[in-house]
Each structure stands twice: as C-alpha cells, then as structure tokens.
Design a protein that fits this description.
The protein has 75 residues and is an alpha+beta fold. Helices cover 25% and strands 43% of the residues. The chain is built from two helices and five strands. The strands form two sheets. It has a three-stranded antiparallel β-sheet with strand order 2-1-5, covered by helices on one side. It has a two-stranded antiparallel ribbon with strand order 3-4.
C-alpha cells in the first residue's frame, strides 16, 4: 500500500484462503498478522484477487483452504 510505503513499513502477513472449485478465493482471514493494519488489509485484498488451480480429489475439483504468505518489502 502506498501509505505504508511512504511510512517505510515492511512486514509479512500469512492469510488463510478458502479456494473454490473454480480456483477463486471465497473467504480469507489473517492467520499471522504483520502487526500493521495497512499491510494486513492489503494482504486480504490480494488474496481475494488471487486465482488458483483448483485442487482435485478423485478427479473432481474440491474446495480447499490454503495458507498464503504475503511479504511487503521496500526496494
């Protein structure tokens, strides 16, 4: 996020995302916070925009939870 970038804030957020059978994320929550609300909110937004390859069980797509780390670093 631009505000976090200007403030020099870095961190990592781990998000638990529920991936639907079409690969979209239908639910997301913070598993491990960065300690900064701006980064946490940006990670949740990024999780909802992500697209995954659907998991399969016995050749049928299934809904699965995944843990996704988001690292925010300044260059």
């Amino acid at each position: 996020p631009e505000l976090a970038r200007r403030a020099g804030i870095e961190g990592q957020v781990v998000v638990k995302a529920l991936v639907e059978i079409d690969g979209s994320v239908i639910d997301a929550e913070i598993l491990k916070s960065s300690g900064n609300q701006l980064l946490d909110e940006a990670a949740i937004k990024a999780a909802y925009r992500a697209k995954f390859t659907p998991a399969r069980q016995r050749d049928k797509p299934v809904r699965v939870p995944v843990s996704v780390p988001y690292r925010f670093t300044l260059q």
